[in-house]
Amino acid sequence: MNNEARVDKWLWAARIFKTRTMAAAACKKGQVSVGGRQLKPSHLVHVGETIDVKKPPITYSFKILQAIEHRVGAKLIPEVLENVTRAEQYELLEMSKISGFVDRARGTGRPTKKERRALDDFKDDTPIFFGDFDFDLDDEEQDYE
């Protein structure tokens, strides 16, 4: 059994990412680290190391039990890795699920129901000035000589 594996292959084989391409892209974006040091996709990881994977809004931590490069069945995952993610990270995940649209920036995309109602109220409260003005200004002609 090999004691080291490429980090992108290990992340894919351990079913942390759906495809190896996604695992490599996460490495390139700086979302994968060991000991606070960001890893390239070709970095070799060893048995016993702890990998941190940022999948917003939380950071997962996994301890490597086996360095594999070929995908295994889901039932064998407990033999490959140990999930050592802290409890406060999962609490953060629950809070983000409860709060709803966390990643949506204000003003982008479709308005929420609350924002749409505020827009409708604003439109309804806007006064219409057509009846208040006298558009017949030609009655008073002045000479400015």
Structure in words:
The protein has five helices and seven strands. By secondary structure, it is of the alpha+beta class. A five-stranded antiparallel β-sheet has the order 3-2-5-6-7. A two-stranded antiparallel sheet has the order 1-4. A hairpin with a 2-residue loop joins strand 2 and strand 3 (37-38). Helix 1 (7-13) crosses helix 2.
Considering the chains and any ligands shown, give keywords for the structure.
145 residues, 19% strand, elongated, alpha+beta
What assembly state would you assign to the polypeptide chains in this entry? single chain
Mean pLDDT across residues: 82
The radius of gyration over CA amounts to 29 Å
Distance between the termini: 105 Å
- CATH class type of the domain at 4-85: Alpha Beta
**CATH level 3 topology of the domain at 4-85:** Structural Genomics Hypothetical 15.5 Kd Protein In mrcA-pckA Intergenic Region, Chain A
Largest sheet data: 5 strands, antiparallel
Order of helices and strands: EHHEEEEEHEHH
Counting DSSP H or I runs of 4 or more residues, the number of helices is 5
Structural classification: alpha+beta
CATH architecture of the domain at 4-85, by name, is Roll
Proportion of residues in β-strands: 15-25%
Shape: elongated
Strand order of the largest sheet: 3-2-5-6-7
In CATH, the homologous superfamily of the domain at 4-85 goes by the name: RNA-binding S4 domain
